[in-house]
Each structure stands twice: as structure tokens, then as C-alpha cells.
Design brief:
The protein contains five helices and no strands. Helix 2 packs antiparallel against helix 3 and helix 4 runs antiparallel to helix 5. The two termini are about 35 Å apart. About 15% of the residues are buried. The model has no long low-confidence stretch (mean pLDDT about 85).
């Protein structure tokens, strides 16, 4: 709607804005609930998930950026977005469907912790 320039009536836009403002904090709260009582495990699935998200995905974004001829500034943005740690949606879906819970939650927790380092390295390398 925003792209098309459509303006929502104030009565509709206010609740949407309220939900948007609490989304970040609410997702962190949900992440805490997801990890309560969980002990992260390191196994081949966790290592594969973390490697894909923290190393392979940013590399793929760099290759795509080069293929599309992006400017240096846009390349930096694309690579940093690609290196950003995983969202909690995978863990929440795993919990909801009662499958793949341990690898998903371990991947999110450990991937986020490792992502702090890999994100810093990515920023340093592309500066």
C-alpha cells in the first residue's frame, strides 16, 4: 500500500503503528520464552545452520551484488543484511509444530552470539 501511495484512514493506521512499535520488544520477549529451559547443543545441524546464515548467505549476497553491479555503498548494505543473525520465526514454527525444536533454538541462540563476531568482521572487511 505504501509503495502505491495509498493512505490508510487514521482509524486503521493507529493500531497498525502500535503493533509495529512493539514488534521488536515482543519478539525479544518471545525469544526469551523460547529459550527458557533450553540448553544449546552443538551438533552437525546447528553448525550447518549457523554456517549457512553467518558465512554462506553473506557471500551469496556479495556475489549477487557484484552480478547486479551495485555501488560500494549498496554492496555494504546488502552484505550486512545477509550477515544479520537469524530471526526467531524458525524457532517459533519448530516449537509450534513440535519438530526440530532443539536444533532450531540452538541455531538461533548460538548463531546470534556468533553473528555478533561475524557481523563485525563483515563490516570491517567491506569498509
Amino acid at each position: 500500500l505504501s509503495l502505491a501511495g495509498v493512505q490508510l484512514p487514521h482509524m486503521l493506521s493507529m493500531p497498525i503503528e502500535m503493533v509495529g512499535k512493539v514488534a521488536g520488544g515482543l519478539s525479544l520477549f518471545a525469544l526469551g520464552l523460547l529459550f527458557y529451559g533450553e540448553r544449546p547443543t552443538v551438533n552437525i545441524q546447528t553448525c550447518t545452520n549457523i554456517s549457512i546464515k553467518n558465512l554462506i548467505q553473506p557471500a551469496m549476497m556479495a556475489v549477487a551484488g557484484l552480478a547486479f553491479g551495485l555501488s560500494h555503498s549498496l554492496m555494504q548494505q546488502v552484505i550486512i543484511i545477509g550477515a544479520t543473525p537469524s530471526a526467531i520465526a524458525a524457532g517459533m514454527f519448530a516449537l509450534r509444530s513440535d519438530t526440530y525444536i532443539e536444533p532450531a533454538s540452538s541455531s538461533i541462540l548460538l548463531g546470534t552470539a556468533i553473528g555478533v563476531v561475524t557481523e563485525g568482521i563483515m563490516i570491517y572487511l567491506i569498509s
